[in-house]
Design a protein that fits this description.
about 0% strand, 5 helices, single chain
Length: about 100
């Protein structure tokens, strides 16, 4: 005979919140656990602030990637990596900032 576990509404809410954090916030299990445990087990707000900082950086990186990919699609050249002057100008500036020739 199998046993059925019935969850209380507050337990269902916690599970739904954990799933939302995992799906929308791309939080790790440790981060989710910190938020679910609450203030009596540490500074969950610091965990959330750190996650937000990481998400902002990821958004910045994704925006740059999107800009490049859109440029590749709009560039009339057959091989933008080799022949696009706009891309060459950008990579030249990046290399110069990094101290590379």
């Amino acid at each position: 005979m199998s046993t059925v576990t019935v969850l209380r509404p507050d337990e269902l809410h916690r599970l739904a919140a954990a799933k939302m954090l995992q799906d929308t916030g791309l939080c790790t299990l440790d981060e989710i656990a910190a938020v679910l445990r609450g203030p009596e087990h540490g500074d969950w707000r610091a965990v959330v602030r750190d996650r937000i900082t990481e998400l902002v950086e990821q958004q910045r990186t994704l925006a740059i990637a999107e800009t490049f990919l859109n440029h590749f699609l709009r560039c009339p050249r057959d091989h933008p990596i080799e022949t696009c002057p706009s891309l060459r100008d950008y990579t030249t500036r990046v290399l110069a900032a990094a101290g590379k020739p």
